[in-house]
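User: Good morning. I'm curious how 4AD would be positioned relative to this chain. Could you predict the structure with it bound?
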Amino acid sequence: MKHTRIKDLLNATEYGQQVTVKGWVKTFRNNQFIAINDGSTLGNIQAVVDFNSTDEALLKRITTGAAIAVTGPLVESLGKGQRVEIKVETLEILGDSDPEKFPLQPKKHSLEFLREIAHLRFRTNTFNAVFRVRNALSFAIHQFFFDRGFVYMHTPIITGSDAEGAGEMFKVTTLDFDHTPRTPDGKIDYKEDFFGKPTNLTVSGQLEGELAAMALGNIYTFGPTFRAENSNTTRHLAEFWMVEPEMAFYELEDNMDLAEELLKYVIRFALDHCPDEIEFLKNRLSEEEKNKPQAERSEMDLITKLHFCLDNRFERLTYTEAIEILQRSKPNQKKQFKYLIEGWGSDLQSEHERYLVERHFKKPVILTDYPADIKAFYMRLNEPDEQGRLTVRAMDILFPGIGELVGGSQREERYDRLVQRMQEMSVPTEELEWYLDTRRFGTAPHSGFGVGFERLVLFVTGMTNIRDVIPFPRTPNNAEF
Ligand code: 4AD
Ligand code: MG
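Assistant: Good morning! Here's the predicted structure, ligand included:
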């Protein structure tokens, strides 16, 4: 018999209909009540077995984690917590699960433990909810851009360039490390390598995205990016997904407007399409917060926080204004910051970003016009201020609990300025002639930004570690599965 998804059955009203359900046993109580989940929804359906008429050997095989198929009429449930249940007439074990060995028991497991069994953690309610929200957010991103006529561009994963100029790249090679071919002066001879030159995994699709935007107008990328930065934090991955729109004829203001609109759209989409998951995650977070000292607990629950973000215009201010606020701030005066703000020019650490967002403004913040020295070569240079300080048309969007969620800028479209900046920052112009061509032929103002997708999922799910919002996280010393 064809099986029905539990999601559909839980909403069904046609009592008495004969149904088949296939799924995994969550719990089996009193030799009678099986809670079955098939992944179609967070909810389980209850199947009731008549233990008097069921073979004992079969009953013993109904264990947490086992895959089963049950058939019987869908009846009104007398039990609490569910409207319908299945009166089991036939039950088949599709795959046993030895209760002595199955690591997921019907009890609370720590997220750390579940990370070690990431291949099985999909079966928990938490990860069921997280990956369903991740899916909705991902779909929402495509929907948002499609509705606005953006072209989804697949930029390469393997590249020969360093888009961010930060040198945090994973090499891609087929050379035999034990016998690397050498040039006469002893250097590795990349001519012998697969691509005939050094290549790496991309850190960003932006530069290729710009090429496309300078013809198609508005484009976006959404794909995996890789960073070999040795940051073992709750917000960094070595492999993460990034959404990078790039728009011709956009200036920084337009760029900020689009980013704010996108973030609000996808958060609302998740609230609308995953209400049960977000409710579950809200409760999970509240439980987790109970273990924290009062002072560290957040003032808002997850759903309130998401609405709060939708209902408020993101605060926009310049880096220079932010530095003034930070310098005057209590944690700086009382030397509570790990990195004290010495003055204009220093890079902001996440403690500073979080102070601005969580304590000063208490809402998402867009910082603009950072010092040129701490930002990438492609950002548009401003005229020097009265004190001769150089800034670029950068924008970072900072979110509560997350810090930097978005990084972007208006691009330097003026050929001479761009080349000069590249030389000053030792970015090889020879390797980026193709990029410079956009500035040689029909250059135009344009802008773009990158959203760290996992950081977005982190915010919307209220999870606290980025390793828990991507199925198989890659971090220093960890590439399991
Ligand atoms: O600020 P980033 O480095 O900007 C770029 O890569 C630009 N090319 C984007 C653009 O203008 N098209 O990275 C963008 C975002 C960050 O704000 C952060 O959310 C996320 O990507 N990100 C990371 N997420 C997880 N793990 C990491 N190691 C990340 N590094 C950056
Ligand atoms: Mg950044």
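The chain has two domains: 6-103, 123-168+203-468. The chain has a mean pLDDT of 96.
Let me know if you'd like a different ligand tried.
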